[in-house]
Design goal:
By secondary structure, the chain is α+β, with helices and mostly antiparallel strands. It has 6 domains: about 130 residues, no CATH class; about 120 residues, PAS domain (Beta-Lactamase, 2-Layer Sandwich); about 100 residues, Beta-Lactamase (2-Layer Sandwich), CATH 3.30.450; about 110 residues, PAS domain (Beta-Lactamase); about 220 residues, 2-Layer Sandwich (Heat Shock Protein 90); about 130 residues, Rossmann fold (3-Layer(aba) Sandwich), CATH 3.40.50.2300. It is about 35% helix and about 25% strand. It has 23 helices and 33 strands. The strands form 7 sheets. It has a 6-stranded antiparallel β-sheet, sandwiched between helices. Strand 2 and strand 3 form a beta hairpin. Helix 14 packs antiparallel against helix 15 and helix 16 packs across helix 17. The N terminus is likely disordered.
Length: about 850
């Protein structure tokens, strides 16, 4: 085996320091011998230890052959060790100092032999090397092929009991070795000549030696001799044996002790515990507690106190204390510090014994009282005792808390307590108490309101029973409990309120559905009426006849159409149909209706800004807002009063204000006025949805609402809507009178009168028309004429197949189909399709129909 070795020594080079004198071998004058190394080692070219022997150094611990050479020195010195070894491998010896425990150590590293080249980097005969070998406290020797010593240092001569090295030369290495060790040593020697080193112990002359063999190959790689080291470790072995016996005696003492004996480290964690301690802990294996923080075995209440006492022990002061363990047992402990060589406390040794029997009676009573108190607190119950003879009521701490009193207990007379009961509940409470005291009921039970010390009214529930009576049967002492049930009572009231709101919401939904259905049917009728009226007007005008009666009829039909829009708005089933809207026109147009809604005692005043800009709004929704606010104002002015509606332009906004000089609202009512279902009216007098609906409509239009009111000065509602920018109002499309219809239109409408009107209107305008009475027929017609049809007009609600399903199937057949949706209900029937196509709300006139059809077709033609 050929590798480059470095031989070094980690030596204690003491400089006359006291610690060195205690630690190192002393000379005759009491000084430390600085010439004798404490350890000798060899490493290979990779820095791995192949030989380690000697007394060792205190910091290296359990370093063994095979470890990195840097492990021989403390952590901070390891980079220096690494660089020194590398230099030695390159042929340059070196050394450095290590300070440990107040002692200076000198580490020297020398190059050894290059087995591959046979070159000796530093000759063995050199002064440094020879001095190192001669002065070493170990037997350093070389064995030839014949098994005899070829060389040996002075320590080896002395170890063999010879006078001179010449007496050892030629002497067999195995001479004097115990017979039992000879076979093994012969085998190890053969292995060494075969190139394999070893580390072993041998016995000779009643002594024990620690030795090693290191093969020394020549330039050709042949092992002709063995380098060896030996050290007499007899005394160390004896010490180890004695120490083992002493430790065994101590172990038996600890293990057989009836007390818990344990150790904790500087972190406060258990490192060992005897069998008695494990039994106390309720575990079988020491591994279960090793590493566990000692304070974990102490109940939480005692932990801060024990932590302070242990801290004192770590400062060197023994500590004694009693504590309660986490399992409820009581223990007494004594801890003493163990001081290391540096004078610091490295660990604590503790002795603990069980004192549970001494304290369990007192603790059991305290636990019982504690459990009772915790049970009552968990149940949120207060205890009270009424001495009926002395008329003194005593209550627990929880009873005092419920009454708003301070202190752990409370005492008062029954009269004092009754004075704090709500006047509406007082007679009932006293009647139930008298009935129970007289023996008429088995238990007193009452729920009532009581004013606490801070003036708050709370709901209490009391239950009690007379437990002691005198010889005459008169009550002496009554025991009971009290509970604060305020939150339960409030929750029940809130639940009743929510139930009433749910009933109201369901009623409003039913009314809304009814109103929506009626409006839908009326819209179909009005479409036919308005359509035929318009056609009749055109015919009469062409004939030059009087049209006044027909105009009056059309005006009535349009008013009916406005009414159905309001019904749909009320039922929430009308889609927003925003357009450029004049708020002044809405207010003026609604004036007649408002005068019919308001009594004669209320004056309606309008103040309209002529420069008011238009807004993007649904006129029907704005009408609904004005109607709701006007009705609220009417109800707020049961006598005379004035309702003012104002408009004005302000900062790019159109402002609409409704104010009255009624009773006004309190601050609490004003804060909640916009909440759904909140109302101050009597039951059946209002839904609580009016102002909530107004707020919803305003915000849906991107506006803001300000509610200003106070008791005695009326209410003002200010609504601000974003004004349309100049130029954003599109001019009306060209009249259909100027356009001549071109193309084919498929009309899908289940109401026959509406369908006939639509078809007649389109035919008169020049369109080719196909008609279907429901979605099924409509899809079939479209499939047969898909290439001919330019536009499909489809109703929302139809039998067999509704408008949405029919639209989906038509688009599946031809995705670019132009569609016009028609509905007298709401656009929800078409789902998300309504966002992609035009919507025509019923009722509509022939003119509106033709204008819309023209716009849809023209837009499609303009699309590339």
């Amino acid at each position: 085996m050929s590798f480059f070795r470095v031989m070094g020594e980690g030596a204690l080079w003491a400089r006359g320091e006291a610690r060195a004198r205690r630690a190192g071998p002393a000379s005759e004058d009491g000084s430390v011998d600085v010439t004798r190394p404490a350890a000798i080692w060899l490493c290979d070219g990779r820095g791995t230890l192949v030989l380690l022997t000697g007394a060792g150094v205190p910091w290296s611990g359990a370093v063994e052959v095979g470890a990195a050479v840097e492990a021989l020195v403390p952590g901070p010195s390891r980079p220096r060790m690494s660089s020194t070894v590398r230099a030695a491998l390159d042929g340059t010896p070196g050394g450095f100092e290590v300070v440990h425990g107040g002692v200076r150590w000198v580490v020297r590293v020398e190059p050894s032999r290059d087995g591959a080249s046979g070159t000796i980097t530093r000759a063995p005969e050199s002064d440094i090397h020879r001095e190192m070998v001669e002065r070493a406290p170990l037997c350093v020797h070389r064995i030839g092929r014949d098994g005899a010593f070829a060389s040996i240092n002075q320590a080896g001569v002395e170890m063999l009991g010879l006078a001179d090295a010449s007496e050892a030369l030629g002497r067999s290495y195995l001479q004097g070795v115990d017979e039992a060790d000879l076979p093994r040593l012969r085998e190890l020697m053969d292995r060494a000549f075969a190139g394999h080193g070893s580390h072993f112990e041998l016995r000779a002359g009643g002594r024990v030696f620690e030795s090693c063999f290191v093969p020394l190959p020549d330039a050709d790689g042949q092992v002709e001799s063995i380098f060896g080291l030996s050290q007499d470790v007899t005394e160390r072995k004896r010490t180890e044996i004695e120490l083992g016996r002493s430790e065994e005696r101590y172990r038996l003492l600890v293990e057989r002790s009836p007390y818990c004996i344990h150790q904790i480290d500087q972190r406060g964690c258990l490192t060992s515990m005897n069998a008695a301690g494990l039994r106390m802990m309720g575990v079988e294996d020491e591994a279960e507690v090793r590493g566990m923080p000692y304070l974990d075995s102490v109940c939480a209440r005692d932990q801060p106190r024990i932590a302070q006492l242990l801290a004192a022990a770590y400062d060197g002061v023994p500590s004694q204390f009693e504590f309660e363990a986490a399992n409820g047992q009581s223990f007494a402990s004594t801890f003493v510090p163990v001081v290391d060589d540096d004078g610091g406390v490295s660990k604590l040794i503790g002795l603990t014994h069980d004192v549970t029997l001494r304290t369990q009676s007192t603790k059991a009573l305290a636990d019982s009282e504690h459990r009772l108190a915790m049970t009552l607190r968990a149940a949120d119950l207060g205890l009270w005792v009424w001495d009926t003879v002395a008329d003194v009521m005593s209550g627990s701490r929880r009873t005092a808390e419920i009454l708003g009193e301070a202190g752990d207990e409370i005492q008062m007379s029954q009269a004092e307590l009754m004075s704090r009961v709500h006047p509406e509940d007082r007679d009932a409470v006293m009647a139930r108490a008298r009935a129970h005291l007289a023996g008429e009921t088995g238990q007193f039970e009452s729920e009532y309101r009581l004013r606490t010390k801070d003036g708050e009214w709370r709901w209490l529930r009391d239950r009690g029973r007379v437990m002691e009576r005198d010889e005459a049967g008169e009550p002496v002492r009554m025991f009971g409990i009290t509970q604060d049930v305020t939150e339960r009572v409030r929750a029940e009231a809130k639940q009743q309120e929510l139930h009433a709101q749910l009933v109201q919401a369901q009623k409003m939904e039913s009314v809304g559905q009814l109103a929506g259905g009626i409006a839908h049917d009326f819209n179909n009728l009005l479409t036919v009426i308005l359509g035929n009226l318009e056609m009749a007007l055109e015919d009469v005008q062409e004939a030059g006849l009087e049209t006044a009666d027909l105009e009056e009829t059309r005006a009535a039909a349009e008013r009916a159409s406005s009414l159905t829009r309001r019904l749909l708005t009320f039922s929430r089933q009308r889609s927003l149909e925003k357009s450029a809207t004049d708020l002044n026109a809405i207010v003026e147009g609604l004036g007649g209706m408002l005068e019919r809604v308001l009594p004669d005692s209320i004056t309606l005043e309008l103040s309209l800004d002529p420069a008011l800009p238009p807004i993007d709004a649904d006129a029907g929704q704005i009408e609904q807002v004005l109607l709701n606010l006007s009705v609220n104002a009417r109800d707020a002015m049961p006598g005379d009063g004035t309702l003012r509606i104002e408009t004005r332009s302000r900062d790019g906004m159109a402002e609409l204000t409704v104010r009255d000089d009624g009773a006004g609202m309190s601050e609490e009512t004003r804060r909640r006025a916009l909440e759904p279902f909140f109302t101050t009216k009597e039951p059946q007098g209002g839904t609580g949805l009016g102002l909530a609906m107004v707020y919803g409509i305003v915000t849906q239009h991107g506006g803001e609402l300000l509610l200003d009111s106070a008791l005695g000065r009326g209410t003002r509602v200010v609504m601000c809507f974003p004004a349309l920018r100049e130029g954003s109002v599109q001019p009306p499309p060209p009249s259909s009178e100027e356009a001549l219809g071109r193309g084919t239109v498929l009309v899908i409408e289940d109401e026959s009168h509406v369908r006939k009107l639509v078809c007649r209107t389109l035919v008169r305008a020049g369109y080719e028309v196909l008609e279907a009475a429901d979605g099924v027929d409509g899809v079939a017609l479209f499939e047969a004429h898909a290439d001919e049809i330019d536009l499909v007009i489809v109703d929302a609600i139809m039998p067999r197949m509704d408008g949405r399903e029919a639209t989906k199937r038509i688009l599946a057949l031809r995705p670019d189909t132009r569609l016009l949706f028609s509905t007298g209900y709401h656009a929800g029937g078409f789902g998300d399709l309504v966002d992609q196509h035009r919507l025509l709300s019923k009722p509509y006139t022939p003119r509106v129909l033709l204008d819309t059809v023209t716009q849809v077709l023209d837009a499609a033609s303009a699309t590339p």
